[in-house]
Give the backbone structure.
Amino acid sequence: MILYNSQVSGNCYKVRLVLARLGASYERRELSVSDRTDRAEVLGGLNPALRVPTLVLDDGRALGESGAITWFLAEGTDLVPSDPFSRAQVLQWLFFEQYDHEPAIAAVRFWVAYSGRPEAFTHLLEERRAAGHRALAAMETHLTGRQYLVGETLTLADVALYAYTHVAPEGGFDLAAYPSIGAWLDRVAGDPHHVPMDA
Amino acid sequence: MILYNSQVSGNCYKVRLVLARLGASYERRELSVSDRTDRAEVLGGLNPALRVPTLVLDDGRALGESGAITWFLAEGTDLVPSDPFSRAQVLQWLFFEQYDHEPAIAAVRFWVAYSGRPEAFTHLLEERRAAGHRALAAMETHLTGRQYLVGETLTLADVALYAYTHVAPEGGFDLAAYPSIGAWLDRVAGDPHHVPMDA
């Protein structure tokens, strides 16, 4: 398999986390997150959204969207429950991440720490920081009294939400106000199959 | 089942389309899309994102996120393929819709046609219109030469993308430039199980 990857992208990290759990071998092809001028040339025909991660299977078929790629890889493993309602709860958190969490927390982190021109995004920071804190507050409320996002064990929901939550401080989000998130981050990172983002 | 619903929301329409196909009976509880001050009171404890659609099953368990709700309802029907790769392709389009398509096309439609204060969003229109046209162009390219988004039959991907695409003109998106989308919209709406948005 070939993973079109950006090492600092949390969306790509989700895929690498699942691949590491599977013990799968794959080739990484690194694309820049700041200079995206080559995306159409490299990813055209593979992913309508022209984004990383894009996974190309050994038979040449390609998938985009971290949620779809990780679901494809993880279905049938203990990361995706077999009970239909629990499966849907995992998907609920995957969609929450892509709609409420990533466009705030990942966007601010990118602007501040990786874009190379943070001043270009100053006018957007306040609204996106507030949106990020709303997403974190929703997670904190849900995780209070729970060990994992869905059920009693680690699932794809935890992997997906871990990716950008654990680097939220790079975007200036102070996680000290979210103690249940803090304990959950430690729990997810303590899983024996866990690999760090820079691996 | 109880569906917390907004009749003009495309996200809720996706759920209603799937429920209509299933012939399922359910109660609708209508929430306003413009005055959202009651969301925490009504949806707290049911949906961490405090949004419609939220579906409450007969046993009291609740699900949020249109992609998760429709997947839960449609798994095992012909809307969700059984082949793992095709399933992942359906999910890819569901995530594309929530990340690239809805935040542009649905947002502009809401600001222009439903917010009651379009002038408050004027400064955001140009960038969001451009993003919407990028999403439509990606769909047009993919649909050229194809009957449906995934495989040879109608799937949940078509239902999900139909919802906000067919009302994109309410946001000022002229679909005349996208003939393959136009033919696909007619095809989806021609399905014998289809119901209109205002049903």
Summary: Chain B touches chain A at residues 48-50, 57, 61, 63-69, 71-72, 75, 84-85, 87-89, 91-92, 94-96, 98-100, 102-103, 138-139, 141-142 (CB under 8 Å). Residues 21 and 192 of chain B are 9 Å apart (CA to CA). The longest helix of chain B spans residues 84-114.
